[in-house]
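I am writing to request your help with a piece of structural work I have in hand. Here, with my thanks, is the record as I have it:
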Amino acid sequence: DFEVGQPEQAKAEILITGSGNVWRGVELRAIEIRATVADGMLQFPKFEILLKRGDIRVQGYADLTKGKGEVDYFSNADLEQFAAVGGRGTAGLKEFHGVQPPAISGVIGFDWKNTKGFFWQGRVEMGEFRVGKHVYRKLIFPWVTSGRRWMIQGFEIDGGNGKASLQLVFDGKAELKGSYRSDIDLEWLVPWLGDGAMPFMKSLELRANPRISAQITGAAMQMDLIRVEGRIEVQNLSYKGVEMQELAGNVLLAGGYRDWE
């Protein structure tokens, strides 16, 4: 029972189900969505998607009178399933193999009448996982965004004999800044570097974890507008069969330009 122009007076019970569907290569075994509309409230008591490995569960509401709402979600879906969803941006997921599925959770708030704002706080936490032959103890990836502005605060990978941490903030206009610190092996990073980096990585043999510190700046979330400047130090390595006791230098990556000194 809906009246156009007055959604706060609507009444409805909605049930949507499906099975055996595929979305961008992701197998959706079953979908069940239950929603009710009454007394100016749209509520989702059940929003469940069962995947081939894991599931996604959502609960939320929208206050049609006040013009705001909130959604909570949780998932234990195997991330490898989503490798093809976002092209190059998610391709690296196919190399992540967890002993247990990750815990993915978050809350999304929105207001379309007063502040007309949007808020999303999320977190991915994964226990022991493997990339190639390397095993890692833990991954934590938290973020907060208001749509245009966002922040990654506390990203961490624990490799047992080293760690990697990342802080990154974008003000929504023209300033990106952050830092990266690492004394962990680089295997976990290789899947995200693209095919162009593979020949270099295959010709490099690291027998000890490199130490990396870098500052990140930029004008937007575009690779040609991001500058990474830092220092790398590594011992006991070989490059194209040439043995080296130690290698240290400053590194600059900017707009597709790479420099080492």
Remarks:
- The chain has a mean pLDDT of 85.
- Residues 72 and 107 are 4 Å apart (CA to CA).
- The first strand starts at residue 12 and ends at 23.
